[in-house]
Amino acid sequence: MKLYLDTAVFDDIKTAVDWGVVDGVTTNPTLIAKAGQDHETQVKRICGSVGNVSAEVVRETRDEMVIERRRLAAWHENVMVKVPLTPDGLAAGKVLAGEGVRINVTLCFTVNQALLAAAIGAHIISPFAGRLDDINENGMRTVADIVSAYRQQAVTTKVLSASIRSPMHVTQAALAGADIATMPFAVLKQLFDHPLTDAGQKRFLEDYRKEALRRVPAR
Length: 219
Description:
By secondary structure, the protein is of the alpha/beta class. It has eleven helices and eight strands. Helix 4 (62-75) crosses helix 5. It has an eight-stranded parallel barrel, surrounded by six helices.
């Protein structure tokens, strides 16, 4: 399972890229606004650091979305265009997918919606696990069901588990068979954490220093 960051904060993205653990970034206008940056400028900057950058627009009709998404796709070869799982969003996505644009269908909450995304040739479907949990539904069960349905139907659309809230969500997404999980930088950092790792590293270094001192010749 590939790991993406769900953010538009460039410093966090650069840090994660330097760690060598992320393969992409998901953004939306809200995240761009929180980063305090111009949409186009920030997306292009992110694309220069990492591949597979999902960028979303805010138009509502099919024709408006096609025009705006063509503009987004032209910003950089690494851009994947996010469309909402609405009739107009899928119609626009169908047009753009036919033009070779990689489409990420967002705001998915059911298997049936995921089947609609597959029907238009979406590159990625993004079920929002955390938001389903918020309304007392099992978000990761939905992710697993989408993965199962796609495999049974030989669908090539990739399943991206979105709305990740915790390291446990990441584990569950991997066990569910998701192709990608996208998460905030804070959750990515938590994936490194375990008290036994910290204790072990501390012990190894202490033992090394003791041995180094023991080998220093007396004067």
